[in-house]
Automatic annotation (TrEMBL):
One of its GO terms (biological process) is DNA repair. This is DNA repair protein RecN. Belongs to the RecN family. Residues 2-507 form the RecF/RecN/SMC N-terminal domain. May be involved in recombinational repair of damaged DNA. One of its GO terms (molecular function) is ATP binding. The lineage of its organism: Bacteria, Pseudomonadati, Bacteroidota, Flavobacteriia, Flavobacteriales. Residues 155-229, 268-355 form a coiled coil. Gene3D superfamilies: P-loop containing nucleotide triphosphate hydrolases. GO terms for cellular component: bacterial nucleoid. The keyword Coiled coil applies. It comes from Polaribacter reichenbachii. It holds the Pfam family SMC_N.
Amino acid sequence: MLTQLSINNYALINQLSIDFSSGLSIITGETGAGKSILLGALGLVLGNRVDLSSLKDTSKKCVVEARLDIANYNLNDFFNEVDLDYESETIIRREILPSGKSRAFVNDTPVRLSVLNELRTKLIDVHSQHQTLQLSDNSFQFSILDALAKNKEKIASYKRGYAKLNQLKKELQELEAVQKEANQQYEYNLHLFNELEEANLKVDEQEELEEKLEKLNNIEDIKLNLSEALEISVNEEIGIQNLLNTLENRLLKIASFSKDYQELSERVTSVKIEIDDVVTELENANENVDFNPNEIEELNDRLQLIYNLQKKHTVSTNQELIKVLEDLSEKVSQVENAEETINNKQKEIDDVAGKLDKLAGLITKSRVASIPKLTKELQFLLSELGMENARFSIKIKPTKSYFSNGKDELEFLFSANKGGSFGELKKVASGGELSRIMLSVKKVLSENTQLPTIIFDEIDTGVSGEVSNKIAAIMQQMGKHMQVIAITHLPQIASKGQSHYKVFKKEVKGVTTTNLKQLTTEERIKEIAEMLSGKDISDSALTHAKELLSL
């Protein structure tokens, strides 16, 4: 509930701070005194658009601050969702700078206006005759019925399932779209896959083939140089092996004479062993050199296949070709296994839909059961408010379609006159009738759900006498369950408030300002007497005012 409203430099208000209490509070004042300014300031702090002409002094910033007790509104989850610190006493502040820049804060944390607008729907509900058009909104009509049906938890559960169902359907559509595209490419991808798979590629194959081909293409030079190398190594007169044998024998003869000669002899022996090994390798290599034209052709064919595949897939290595093969394998497999994947997704959808159907059935059942009670309560209240012939025709039609709040369509029709035909509220009810219907609806809702603070802005326009007493009684009853603030011109209603505030204008040094104050008992008697008889308050008006106030 709203506990305090502070306004600085807004319209005709210099500075104002007023505390509000629970129950029914009344705001009165002469026409033009500034009641609309108060509502404008409250709308501003709750996210309305900025109008620079609203600044009283355009050289200073405008600040509007609202303190609200939200302990009973279960808003912890909402605050977490929008990343705000939850406080049971929450402070909302709106600042408008002379430059036109606007800033909003919740518990001193900057917030976007979208967050503020979402929060306002949970905290303050302002109703004038213009807002009564909400009665014709189908979702609002459902909310009335569901409040009586105690469907809050069932609908919350349904909405979670409904969101999951929509997500699964979206995933199915995406799978089917991918499947359709994949099907169109399947034959081509399968051909490419088979072509690469048949090639039986190996990562290092290209380098190995190129090396072999290079060797075969230079076979004559290789043969000639190997033969000459062997001749240099094994020639009996000048060959390296023969010379090393001679060198080894010479050093062995003197090795025993000195440690140095021994070391030299061992080093020569080591070299000789290495040369002998090299000669053996040269002999083997020379024997294995063989020119085979067929092998060259096979190598060229294999390399050409690899080059062609690399060019076709715009890559430069076998490793990249193997990656292309893996990707193609996945695409081909995706198509071949898609039917099973789609069937599994459809099964998930069917499972969720089955659970939703059961839950929607329970919601429908409780809605149908609550219609007689809602109809009876609304018709009784409207009868009390001077609409004795008001009748409602409320029908639930279960459908096969899934909506955000169930599977029902709702027909909410009204007739104001005896024997009159039923029609849509906005077509068959006048402005005054809509106001009384909205009051009755809010009365029913206040007893069946946790409503935010409600502000009735002269919703009683056009009524008087006994009807105004009934309106006042209904507002009083609503005040037992929630905070109700009523802006009124009727003394019968003004007298029923637990608290009474007066809006008035005052001129100081030629400047007019709007003020708001809470009235004492004596001031309240005078205010109501003035509402009864005008500026010239008579004794009978004072007596009547005291009677209305039960004093």
